């Protein structure tokens, strides 16, 4: 993490809370927005830190895995963010269900499109919706 915020093109400096999310590569822009909100509120996060095996082949190799988007250490929970239309999240729900079956000691919060839209609306941020997250 940088100690000084990066410069903007007009010479202004970014708020220190924005620096962390800007330095990280994300699979989808909605994840960057969510990370910036976490930074704004001072919530520590780690992006996609662990991949959990969900199914194994007959040879013992992992055939299906799940990597939640965020780990929130202070809250001891994983967060999975999806901006897909609710009708299209069947596979993600199945993975979340399997995760909870195999790892009941771990907390997982799934933020669906409606949750994400309500969150960005509350902060007056333009939503980024798509099928990648």
What is the element layout, followed by pairings?
Layout: H1 16-23, H2 29-40, E1 46-47, E2 52-56, E3 62-66, E4 70-72, E5 77-81, H3 90-102, E6 107-111, H4 113-122
Parallel strand pairs: 5-6
Antiparallel strand pairs: 1-4, 2-3, 4-5
Helix pairs in contact: 1-2
Question: What does this molecule look like?
Answer:
The structure is a single chain. The chain is of the alpha+beta class and 133 residues long. The chain has a domain at 47-122. It is 32% helix and 19% strand. The protein contains four helices and six strands; from the N terminus they run H-H-E-E-E-E-E-H-E-H. The strands form two sheets. The chain has a four-stranded mixed sheet with strand order 1-4-5-6. Strand 5 (77-81), helix 3 (90-102) and strand 6 (107-111) form a beta-alpha-beta unit. The longest helix is centred in the C-terminal third of the chain and has 13 residues, at 90-102. Residues 1-18 have low confidence and may be disordered.
Salient structural properties:
single chain, 133 residues, alpha+beta, 4-stranded mixed beta sheet, globular, disordered N terminus
